[in-house]
Amino acid sequence: MIVVDLICSAEHRFEGWFASQEAFEHQNAAGMVSCPKCGATHIRRLPSAPHLARAIAPTPAPTPPAVPPEAVAKLIEAIREHAANSEDVGSRFPEEARRIYYGDAEERAIRGQASPREALDLLEEGISVLPVPPKEDLH
User: Fold this and answer.
1) Which tens digits make up the pLDDT trace of 67-113?
2) Whole-angstrom distance, CA of residue 107 vs CA of residue 91
3) What is the DSSP pairing of strand 43-45 with strand 2-8?
4) How far is CA 107 from CA 99, 101, 102, 113, in A?
5) Whose C-alpha in 47, 114, 130, 135 is 20 to 30 A from the C-alpha of 57?
6) Taking all residues of the chain, what is their mean pLDDT, rounded to a whole number?
């Protein structure tokens, strides 16, 4: 695909897109190229730098920056420490999280078990939950 700068007999400038130079010449000679402003079919090409229109390849998603393993280990340890200092409500976790969120129970840090579906339901309600990597002495 090529893009060419064109001008009509009334001096209106515009741009045309053609499969090739030969396609432009053929269409122009056949009177198939017209000015979008006045409809004139006496069209000539203006000098311009070559410009090829190509399909734009999708931009690959940016690669997230690498996180040093030490930072990941520290984060996991901090999460585990916070979990160790929270109240274990066991399988009542979804129910208790809702009670706290809606103000029916005192606000406090809790931990427990929830199925993936229960955790997703809590998140959809706007209740923040975070899976904690297990540590033997927490449960």
Assistant:
1) 888 988 898 888 888 888 899 999 999 999 999 999 999 999 999 99
2) 18
3) antiparallel
4) 9, 8, 10, 18
5) 47
6) 86
Ranges assigned E (strand) in the chain = 2-8, 13-18, 43-45, 87-90, 110-112
The DSSP bridge partners found for residue 93 are none
Tell me the residue type at 6.
L
Q: Supply φ then ψ for residue 116, to 5 degrees.
A: -55, -40
54 Cβ contact partners less than 8 Å away, ≥ 6 residues apart: 1
Which residue type does 76 have? I
Instruction: Give 109-137 as a DSSP string.
Output: -EEE---HHHHHHHHHTT---------TT
Length of the chain: 139
